[in-house]
Design goal:
This protein has about 210 residues and is α+β, with helices and mostly antiparallel strands. Helix content is about 25%, strand content about 30%. The model has no long low-confidence stretch (mean pLDDT about 95).
C-alpha cells in the first residue's frame, strides 16, 4: 500500500509503511528485484522478511534512490554512502524510517498494548516523571515515555543505560494526538537535551527524536 504516514521538517523526512504486501509484491517495488530475491533466501521467517523488505521500500521512497543499509557493531543502522543519517523501527504490522541530511535523528514505533503497564516501574521514575491521563487511560502516557526512551537509547548508542535513571522525560500534559515535549539524558557528560515529536495513530504510537 502507499506510505501510511509521511512527514517532512527542515532536513528530515520520515514515514510509516503498513505491511500488507507479500514478499514478492514488496520486491517488485524495489529498483533491483533480482538482488532482493537473492537476499530474501537468507530469511527463515516470512514476517521478518516482510519487515526487512518494507524498510527498504520505504527508504527508497523517502530518499528517492536506492540506498544500502549497513550496521555498526552495536546493530545501529547507517547508510553505506553516508548520504543521510538514518533510524529504523518496526512494530506489529508497521515499519518506520527517518532520514536526515545533516543531523542524527531517531524514531520509535509501538502498537498499543496493555503490557507496558506491567513493566512501567522499570523505566518510569516515580518522582521525576508524572503521568497524565488521555482519553481516560494512562496507557498513552506510558507508551510515550517508553517510545521516547527507546528513541533516546538509539541516539546515544551507549552501553549500561538505565531507562529510569539515565533517561528522563520532562513533565508534560498529554492533550492531543500530535504534540511536542522535551527529554534529557544523564548517561553522558554532555547531558543532552532532546526535542520529541509524537503521533498517536489509531493502531500505533510514533516518536521522533532529535537533539535540541
Amino acid at each position: 500500500m502507499p506510505i501510511h504516514l509521511l512527514e517532512k521538517e527542515d532536513t528530515s523526512v520520515w514515514g510509516v509503511w503498513k505491511i500488507e504486501e507479500s514478499p514478492e509484491e514488496l520486491v517488485s517495488l524495489l529498483p533491483d528485484p533480482e538482488k532482493y530475491r537473492r537476499q530474501s533466501s537468507e530469511f527463515s521467517s516470512v514476517s521478518r522478511l516482510r519487515e526487512w523488505l518494507a524498510v527498504r521500500v520505504l527508504l527508497y521512497q523517502l530518499a528517492g534512490a536506492e540506498k544500502e543499509i549497513s550496521y555498526n557493531p552495536t546493530g545501529k543502522p547507517y547508510l553505506a554512502d553516508g548520504s543521510f543519517h538514518i533510524s529504523i523501527s518496526h512494530t506489529k504490522g508497521y515499519v518506520s524510517v527517518v532520514i536526515d541530511s545533516l543531523q542524527e535523528v531517531t524514531v520509535d514505533i509501538e502498537y498499543y498494548s496493555e503490557r507496558v503497564k506491567k513493566i512501567s516501574s522499570r523505566f518510569i521514575h516515580p518522582l521525576r516523571e508524572p503521568l497524565s491521563l488521555y482519553k481516560g487511560d494512562i496507557l498513552y502516557s506510558l507508551l510515550l515515555h517508553w517510545c521516547t526512551k527507546e528513541a533516546l537509547f538509539k541516539y546515544l548508542d551507549e552501553q549500561d543505560v538505565d531507562f529510569r535513571e539515565h533517561l528522563w522525560v520532562q513533565p508534560f500534559t498529554l492533550t492531543g494526538d500530535q504534540e511536542e515535549f522535551t527529554a534529557q539524558e544523564f548517561r553522558t557528560d554532555e547531558k543532552l537535551l532532546f526535542r520529541i515529536n509524537y503521533w498517536l495513530e489509531p493502531d500505533y504510537l510514533l516518536v521522533f527524536c532529535r537533539k535540541q
